Amino acid sequence: MKTAQIIIGLGFGDEGKGITTDFLAQQNPESVVIRFSGGQQAAHTVMIDDKKHVHSSFASGALRGLPSYFTEHCTIHPTFLFNESEELKQKNGNVELHIHPLAKVTTPFDVLSNRKNIKNLEHGTCGKGVGATMKRNESPFKLFAIDLISPRSMLIEKLKGIAHYYGFEEGEEIQNALQDFLEAIDKIKWKIEGYSYLNSFNNLIFEGSQGILLDMDHGVFPNVTFANTTSKNAYEVCKLLKIENIEMFYVTRSYSTRHGSGWMSNENEIKLKNNEEETCIFNEYQKDLRFGNLDYDLLNYALKLDEAYVFANKKNLVVTCLDQIDEEFKIENLDVKFDEVYGSYSPYSKDFKRINKNID
Predict the structure, then answer these.
(1) Is 186 one of the catalytic residues?
(2) Which E.C. number(s) belong to this protein (predicted)?
């Protein structure tokens, strides 16, 4: 019987979805890891022995040796993708990548527009062009993965149309970005194919992006992402593939975080003991990573919200960064009953362990 394991962040992102994906990849090495929302703005960190990789354009099973699949709900940027594939090759990671034909393509013009848009900068952005890509694809100026294998003259005409959509005039900056973009397309080894590819696997690992509290339909506007960060998209794929055995992995840190601007409850200064491997550091687009105590009301809200989108046979809770706080962590005040609770004490998935009501 085919099994799906869906990983969802319960907060504003940065919960530990990458390390959870790596943990499941280690347990199920014959699986494929599927990205079903977001795109190249992900920064999911995996550490295996002395190797570390931040997964963005590849799913977080790649360093472990598993193939990646991006669904139609995702965005891809060929230049970013090629650069990451070169990094993974040096670390002996798996650069096998399969992309749904209708995955949306980010162009250099989307990235430039994203970084120069004042509203985007005020509301918060990763600067990777994901939101701009999603919004542009609501217009007639669409670009999908399947278009990347169209005749080159046709692809260039579409790219010129996208440049015109944003009001860019031809210049050296645009020409250089376009040249890098087209060269990356020629160098990338990928397969553009539909969901039938997934039928060859008995276990599918669905890796979520960001967190439920940033969902485009349920977050606090305007500080949201242009994606469904609940189980919605993953469950739709499961139904399409007739997978009924679904296991959830809901992820939270032992404290709250939010990268960039926007509403956040319980924000305060907390002292962390062991965060040298923190990937989410200050950058000019997202700004600082903010911290606070864990808000159980928000956790319950996120859990109940996701139940509206998915029917799961098994529900698990994953609590990461347990080594970073002084207080004894307790699993309490949650309305959802979990089959298993897992804890992570470091950035390494080998330190995952089952925990009970209290940390032992």
Answers:
(1) no
(2) 6.3.4.4
Q: Does domain 3-101+192-354 have CATH number 3.40.440.10?
A: yes
Q: Which residues, including other chains, have CB under 8 Å from residue 136's CB and lie 6 or more apart?
A: 110, 142, 162, 165
Instruction: Return the amino acid letter for 73.
Output: H
Residue 354, helix vs strand vs coil: strand
To the question of whether residue 351 is assigned a binding role by annotation, the answer is: no
| pLDDT tens-place values along the chain, 360 residues long | 899 999 999 999 889 999 999 999 999 999 999 999 999 888 899 999 889 999 999 999 999 999 999 999 999 999 999 999 999 999 999 999 999 999 999 999 999 887 765 454 444 455 678 989 999 999 999 999 999 999 999 999 999 999 999 988 777 777 777 888 999 999 988 899 999 999 999 999 999 999 999 999 999 988 899 999 999 999 999 999 999 999 999 999 999 999 888 999 988 878 777 666 555 554 555 567 888 989 999 999 999 999 999 999 999 999 998 888 766 677 778 888 899 999 988 777 888 888 865 443
Q: If you write DSSP's letter for every residue of 79-142 in order, what string do you get? A: HHHHHHHHHHHHTT----EEE-TTPEEP-HHHHHHHHH-HHHHHH---SSSHHHHHHHTTSS--
Catalytic residue among 14, 110, 215, 306: 14
Told to judge if 147 belongs to the known catalytic residues of this protein, a careful annotator would answer no
The reply to whether 287 sits in an annotated binding site is: yes
Out of 22, 44, 53, 295, the active site residue is 44
Residue 17 is assigned to a ligand binding site: yes
Residue 292 in marked binding region: no
- Residue 16 is assigned to a ligand binding site: yes
At 348, list the tokens.
């390494």
Query: Does 322 count as an annotated binding residue?
Result: yes
